[in-house]
Design a protein that fits this description.
- It is a single chain.
- This protein has a single domain, classed as Rossmann fold, CATH 3.40.50.150.
- Strands 3-2-1-4-5-7-6 form a seven-stranded mixed sheet, sandwiched between helices.
- The protein contains eleven helices and seven strands.
- The radius of gyration is 18 Å and the shape is globular.
């Protein structure tokens, strides 16, 4: 029996993780930068709990270095094999600090998508759908956490939506926004009082903006990011203003969380041929 579009999309995500094996060295600069950003936000006590959403192979973080700063590291992904490979690379002395949560749909929405292709939720029901999705993710994990990092997960979630729903669906724009809204709210809902989340996302890549293949080592990446946004050469759902507005336009969330943007940007060389421009938003819980 032919698999449905959701199963196919998830299988492609797993295949992508598999294909990254052997290319870990190309991640070196990105891995060093992301590890530093996460490590700098660890509680001074050393007893902090870290949650990595979309951990996958964890090629983009140094788990041993993070385990020196956190008491627990929770790896969350839909791909059990990738997380197993990540945990296996951790030194034996640190392995007990690694906790796997697989397979977990960090969107809270995947099992709804095929139904939405034919029968999307009514516009006035989307708020309830988002709330339920957040609750499902939170219930699947042993939070709260001191630090939560979304590891370039947002665009992967959106890719699954695109593959299952299709951008010709008349409601695609609303559903795309719903995925963003749910994801930002998941980050906040998983935080302990005083906790901080990092929403790390690729803004664009060398397929969309080929000049990324030739960026000089001393280039002003902040200016480059501004030029890319002004020229429209970016992934629509990853626009920093759109993501930060999810916290700012909701009066309750605005009181609970402070948003700092953008952190970075920096370059991520993903394998031998792809270059991405990456940045992060910091979401800090005020209480």
């Amino acid at each position: 029996m032919k698999p449905g579009p959701l199963a196919t999309a998830v299988a492609e995500q797993i295949a992508s993780n598999d294909s990254a094996s052997g290319h870990e060295a190309t991640f070196a600069d990105h891995r060093a930068r992301l590890t530093r950003e996460i490590a700098e936000r660890a509680p001074a006590s050393g007893r902090g709990r870290l949650c990595l959403l979309g951990a996958g192979n964890a090629n983009d973080v140094d788990l041993d270095a993070l385990a020196a700063r956190y008491a627990e590291i929770h790896l969350v992904d839909i791909d059990p094999g990738a997380v197993a490979r990540a945990a296996a690379r951790v030194s034996e002395a640190r392995r007990a600090q690694i906790v796997a949560h697989v397979p977990v749909d960090a969107s809270g929405l995947f099992d709804r998508l095929e139904g939405w292709a034919a029968n999307p939720p009514a516009p006035d029901a989307i708020g309830g759908v988002i709330g339920a999705a957040v609750a499902r993710v939170v219930a699947a994990l042993p939070g709260p956490f001191d630090v939560v990092a979304s590891c370039s997960l947002l665009t992967q979630l959106q890719l699954v939506l695109l593959q299952v729903i299709g951008d010709t669906n008349p409601r695609f724009g609303e559903l795309r926004e719903a995925v963003n809204r749910a994801h930002v709210r998941v980050l906040g809902a998983l935080l302990a009082p005083g906790g901080v989340a990092l929403l790390v996302t690729d803004l664009t890549d060398s397929g969309i903006y080929p000049p990324l293949n030739h960026v000089a080592a001393n280039a002003d990446l902040g200016r480059l990011m501004s030029d890319i946004i002004a020229g429209g050469h970016f992934i629509f759902v990853a626009h920093p203003g759109q993501l930060s507005s999810e916290m700012r336009r909701d009066s309750e969330l605005k009181q609970q969380f402070a948003v700092r943007f953008p952190i970075g940007p920096w370059l991520w060389r993903n394998g031998p041929s792809q270059v991405l421009l990456v940045y992060a938003l910091e979401v800090r819980r005020n209480d």
